[in-house]
From TrEMBL:
Domain of life of the native organism: Bacteria
Domain Putative restriction endonuclease: start-end pairs: 13-178
Keyword Nuclease among record annotations: yes
Alphabetized SUPFAM superfamilies for the sequence: Restriction endonuclease-like
TM segment ranges: none
Entries under Gene3D superfamilies matching the protein: tt1808, chain A
Name this polypeptide is given: Uma2 family endonuclease
Presence of keyword Acyltransferase: no
């Protein structure tokens, strides 16, 4: 196994797939370089992070049963359209037939979800979203807080403009990408929410 400290450079997608199979953790491929998932290596994932992602995956899968759309976990890569870059979102949904022909990644999700943490929030809102929005099929990009009842939706309207909608307690979330409305409390039910501490920061 190649030590993660000895990460290769200038990888082709095929070399990246083969290399990552030998690793203990997932890595993204950006401009030929490999990075621990999320580029900024996260501190240990929180319980709420995992529960929120699992809850949304189950929620979307049940809603889309029989539709031909597919809901994926964080184990499925997304290929950034027109590039050799690959990322791992927490949740993705594709309804595009072109994604049925690939086995190691999808390219045309209509919905992407990232559950936020202090170590990845800036990247999820900035560089990662700039890559994702290159995908013409993407309609909704959902950013889910794991410390408070708060969800931000980046929605592409019919004119191709991205709108930002902030959802708080009492709001109903509307995902036009998969024709689904639900109260925000349905996502957070039963969870104990606590603010992140100063130790939950981006590691240098």
């Amino acid at each position: 196994m190649i030590d993660a400290k000895d990460k290769p450079t200038n990888l082709t997608p095929e070399e990246y797939f083969a290399w990552e199979e030998q690793q203990l953790e997932k890595h993204e491929l950006i401009n030929g370089q490999v990075y621990p998932m999320g580029i900024y290596a996260m501190t240990d994932g929180s319980k709420n992070h995992s529960l929120l992602a699992a809850r949304l995956i189950t929620f979307f899968s049940n809603h889309l049963e029989g539709s031909g759309c597919e809901t994926a976990t964080s184990d499925l890569r997304i290929n950034i359209v027109g590039t050799n870059n690959y990322t791992y979102p927490d949740v993705s949904v594709t309804c595009d037939d072109r994604d049925k022909t690939t086995t190691q990644y999808i390219t045309y999700p209509c919905l992407i979800v990232e559950v936020l943490s202090a170590s990845t929030e800036a990247y999820d809102r900035g560089g990662k979203f700039r890559m994702y929005r290159q995908n013409p099929a993407l309609i909704d990009y959902l950013l889910v807080s794991s410390t408070s009842i708060e969800i931000d939706l980046y929605h592409k309207n019919d004119a191709g403009d991205w709108l930002i909608i902030n959802y708080k307690p009492g709001d109903t979330i509307e995902l036009k990408s998969i024709n689904l409305n639900f109260p925000i409390e349905q996502v957070y039910r039963g969870l104990t929410l606590t603010p992140e501490t100063p130790t939950d920061i981006i590691r240098e």
